[in-house]
Amino acid sequence: MAGLRAAVSGLRFGRAHCDAYRNHPECDLVGLYDPNEERLNERAAEYPCATTYESFDRMLEEARPDLVSIAAPDFFHAEQSILALESGANVIVEKAMTNSLENIDAMLAAVERTGRSLYVGQETRLVPAFLDARRLLRAGILGTVYQAESCYIHNCEQLCTGDQWRGNRDFAVHGVLGGGCHPIDLLRSLLGEVAEVFAWETHENPDPTPLPDCITVMLRFDSGCVATVVVSIATRRLYLLKLIMNGTSGYYEGDNAGATWRVATAPPGGHGAKLSEITTRSSSHDVDAEVANLVDAALRGAPLVVDAWEGANTTSVCLAAIESARRGIPIVPRRYIRPATVAPPADPLERMEWRKVGGMALP
Description:
Radius of gyration: 20 Å
Number of strands: 14
Shape: globular
Order of helices and strands: EHEHEHEHEHEHEHHEEEEEEEHH
Strand order of the largest sheet: 8-9-10-7-11-12-13-14
């Protein structure tokens, strides 16, 4: 039986999307697009089941995909997402969702106008260690979280060299959008909406990074919790995305790199803490799970884990951080309210298989 027809734009990171569609039993990979002819030919050899196209519009017209992944450079995300939605496809757009509030408005309008699904590839929501953090919060093990920290520490200089678009000032996306969206989305998904943003930035590595390469962001949430996010894209160390949460009865620390996270618990008002180290599965970007979610939405009307409004609010906080650093003042991010006719986002925990780990029974 023929499956959903899937197509991919942007075949560098989009290769993971090609694999996910090819491996999904309800999908047929039918279309590939990339303006880089050499890369397009390489993927054509890897995925002979799909037709290659030299035009995104032509791919939509001729391949008639039901599902489209947008893994093209960030400045194409809004335009290509809207075209795909209007063609009748459901869409996964990689982070950053887009680069302006105007583009957010246009993308949300397209989702509402077409009734199609737009999944934003915010990968941290599906990282096992951070899903464990969500379970701890839901179970009340940490109590009320009043302070948190996260970071995106990565050396992206190799992505800014040669003819790559990230090294071109006219096209480059600020690091807090391109990378900092990960920790900001993670904190939003765990702690709720952000009420106010203040940020500082530096640019000590101007060659080859054309925009500020380090930014520290302070977030104040509606709940009163405060958090710090550090984004550094020219650092001299291995990639790190870390999460720390301090609560009235517990403490969590974990990251993307290790297979162990730590939680310390104590009764409210008590002294000392019991420390547990818990081993969990490690992964960084579960594109298979994102594709599975989009397929469920297309075939069975399932809600998305990261829908367009979730993506919009994370992007809005990132844009507020950029504005705050530029102007030197706190910024209240624009907030996007999901229409009452649209189902709230899916709980990622309901999509995962869980077990007792490390001798600590998670509820």
